Amino acid sequence: MLQLRIICPAERTGEVTEVLERSVGTAHLAVVAGAARQPPGDLLLCEVAREAADELIDELRALGLARDGSIVLQDAVLSLSERSARAEREAPGEPADAVLWESLSELTHEESTVSVTYLAFMTTAVMIAACGVMLDNAILIVGAMAVGPEFGPLSGVSTALAQWRPRQAARSLSALVTGFAVAIALTTVGTLALDAAGLFSAGMLGGRRGTTEFVWQPGRLSLVVALLAGIAGALSLTSAKSGALIGVAISVTTVPAAANAAVALAYGDGPELRGSSLQLVVNLSGILVAGTLTMIAQRLLLERTKRRERALAARDTARSGP
């Protein structure tokens, strides 16, 4: 169950209360008149089943509460109540399949912002991967993949496209491109600096690297893995499975490919630069396509489930009527 907290202008409390009372999947409605001070109004509290929350939030936004009051939705860690259990049973669909699109949009919007922290994480990840490439060290490669923040803007593009919000998709895509461009440029400079210090050399890049050669040699399996990672990433976001998202982050060679491209650029190695760039484009494209299609499929499936549940409820009501 989720906990819903609303600050509502007093003149609209009756209308909002009516919406909450007739919504399937709600329980424990409480109204505290005059409790809100900034903005002034009434405080409304209730619990709502996860699978019913997205539709309810849309109704509350349509009433102008996001503009004139506030709507806060958060996880209820524990709810011991028969009413709560009944509300979950009555809500259409399954909690594990429910998607809170408004919450997802807010999350991906925040993670798609070009900030100093975002660029610092991206550059640090690519630099770690560059060390892994030069040392042929798989541990450093995996560590860099876990540090990289690129899945934030990637998921932002997919989420925006699934809801057809082109402006938000363009914003996230811009953050993704900017992050990789800045990280590759700084890693190229860092590579030259480490070469001047005697820590890197062209021979380290040109030598045989059995462990990390995959980062600049794209193949058909690269696209397959990217597509699978896009599906897993979308599912992990919509179901709030952060552990699965970490697994996605270390399964696709986006950051290592960018690092290899930066090192190859620094040493003027054309074949590796082209191979790394192609690997990066293939992986990013695969994740975007698969993630977007997965979210669209989830949206359509949820809408179909809700229509079926409503039809069944209407049929049961008709049968039980006079």
TrEMBL record:
Keyword check for Plastid: no
Top-level division of the source organism's lineage: Bacteria
Record bears the keyword Membrane: yes
InterPro entries, per database record: DUF389
Residue intervals passing through the bilayer: 116-135, 173-194, 214-237, 244-268, 280-302
Swiss-Prot/TrEMBL keywords: Membrane, Transmembrane, Transmembrane helix
PANTHER family xrefs: AT15442P-RELATED
Name of protein: DUF389 domain-containing protein
